[in-house]
Amino acid sequence: ISIGNTGGSVNITATEAVEDAIVINANANGAGIDISAQNDIDITITNGAAGEDISIGNTGGSVNISATEVAADSINIDGDGIDIDATDDIDLTVTAGGAGEDLLLNVTGAQDASITLQSSGTGADAIGLITSAGGIDITVAGAAAGEDLDLTSNTSINLTAAENAAEAIKIV
Length: 172
What we know:
By secondary structure, the chain is mostly loops. The protein contains no helices and no strands. The radius of gyration is 26 Å and the shape is elongated.
């Protein structure tokens, strides 16, 4: 069955108050559903409330989101909270093509909020900060009591510098 309209629109509307008021199903072996447009595709819940979600899933396959627009927000995810869980690696990569193309993790707002890197890994490198070129800067701008740089360990703290300089390690 083909449904089409040359020069007009095709609207599918259902007024039954059930969760599956409109169902598009292709369940034959090798069947799929393609949605394409020359302009925007919008999916909106106009009377959304808690629990009335938009779910995208794939049993046994992947979910891929990609964009080719050259823009700082070519993929934009906003929400009151964002939860990403995985049972295998998570890889966030920026392939820099020029200066200033950075990966930024920011917490904004003058509140008691934090960025916490936490690992239950058991290796000697459970958390690593590594550069293949360039340095690592740690800056603490707080001036109030308790706004310190604290290094705490149940074992040794090792500072090693390979630079052949009189002040290779400098504690001021």
